[in-house]
Specification:
Length: 226
């Protein structure tokens, strides 16, 4: 059993998750309780905490996404805050959780960005990492105007784009969140890939007994039926 609330016997992974929520500083006690409730007693194997901040004129909106991996589930928690008055005295938090069986995860896609690739060395870390996870068959379509390559051509060539299968995508930047955040995201993706791959591997079918009784086997109603 893994719980990481007050008074709970948290393991190392649970304490790391609690620390990550405290570092994010986005209603850590609330988020911690919501995640703990969504886990429903399952032990955390790995986690990823991602905080985003958006500016809308004079308002600041924050959004946190917490991914927690167990042996059976990928638990996804989203928390947003919203200001109800101009003074900011009335604030509400909107929370959603989703639990996805790891056996249903179809793909885990990692996209990397490296600076100065001409000078790349094996020790150079990625400057940015995007983790995309698909489980329901949802697709994202990115469209843009198509062109023929002629800079003087103003004809309408329609649109071109790409289709990516994803249900959630998180972009982690070293410039905004630090190199350790990129490394942590990569570690989580590896753990998720390992667990989901193992869950998708079919177990060996049990060996079936002979259809007909073998020589020397006693025949009877309870031993052989057509």
């Amino acid at each position: 059993m893994n719980t990481f609330g007050a008074g709970a016997p948290a393991n190392t992974t649970g304490r790391d998750l609690e620390s990550a929520l405290q570092r994010a500083g986005f209603y850590p006690r609330l988020v911690q309780d919501v995640v703990n409730d969504a886990l429903d007693g399952q032990e955390s194997l790995s986690h990823l905490v991602h905080l985003e901040t958006h500016f809308d004129r004079t308002e600041v909106h924050r959004h946190i996404t917490v991914l927690v991996l167990t042996e059976e589930m990928l638990v996804i928690t989203h928390v947003d805050d919203q200001q109800l008055d101009e003074a900011g005295e009335q604030v509400v938090a909107q929370v959603s959780t989703e639990s996805v069986p790891v056996a249903q995860i179809r793909s885990v896609v990692l996209s990397y960005t490296y600076a100065q690739p001409q000078d790349y060395k094996p020790s150079d870390p990625a400057r940015e990492l995007t983790v995309a996870i698909a489980w329901s068959g949802g697709q994202r379509v990115d469209l843009g105007p198509a062109s023929c390559g002629d800079p003087n051509c103003d004809a309408d060539h329609g649109y071109t784009g790409t289709i990516a299968q994803e249900d959630i995508a998180l972009r982690i930047s070293a410039e905004a969140e630090g190199l350790q955040a990129v490394a942590d995201a990569k570690s989580f993706a590896r753990a998720l890939r390992a667990v989901s791959t193992a869950a998708a591997t079919p177990a060996h079918a049990p060996a079936q007994g002979p259809k007909f009784p073998v020589l020397g086997q006693r025949l009877g109603r309870n031993h052989y039926r057509r």
